[in-house]
Specification:
This protein has 131 residues and is mainly beta. The chain has one domain. The chain has 2 helices and 12 strands. The chain has a 12-stranded antiparallel beta barrel. Strand 4 and strand 5 form a beta hairpin. The longest helix has 10 residues. The chain is globular, with a radius of gyration of 13 Å.
Length: 131
């Protein structure tokens, strides 16, 4: 339920994505446009969950239940309502905490994404759809 509600909210303005050293490694704008650390547009997450790369080719999809799919429509992971991120084998690979701190499977902080929907943050950090 929480993931569904998060999917429906849009970022209110451009928000930085930071690594554990507090360096900006990306940005997501209010329209879902995703930028890398050099401010180059690397993709976009549509309001329907469709993920496209810089060439506007569909590379994935975020479903309302938090399931993440690749360009072949294969399930590559899922973001649970509590922020736990799992891979295609249902193994926990990380978590986006309620304070938007992102941790890996060892609970080590790998980044921070304030005011960005949990699923968007997980796609950026764990599923690398924009590469």
């Amino acid at each position: 339920m929480i993931v569904s509600m998060v999917m429906m909210c849009m970022v209110s303005y451009a928000q930085d994505i930071r690594n554990s050293s507090n360096m900006i490694i990306g940005k997501i704008e209010s329209d879902g446009t995703v930028h890398d650390r050099s401010n180059m547009m690397i993709g976009k997450i549509g309001s329907d969950g469709t993920v496209v790369n810089r060439n506007k080719m569909t590379v994935g999809k975020i479903e309302r239940d938090g399931t993440i799919r690749d360009r072949s429509n294969m399930m590559i992971g899922k973001v649970n309502s509590d922020g736990v991120v799992k891979d295609r084998s249902n193994m926990q690979i990380g978590r986006v905490k309620s304070d938007r701190i992102v941790v890996n499977r060892s609970n080590r902080m790998i980044g921070y994404a304030k005011d960005i929907p949990t699923t968007y943050t997980a796609v950026f950090f764990f599923f690398k759809l924009f590469e």
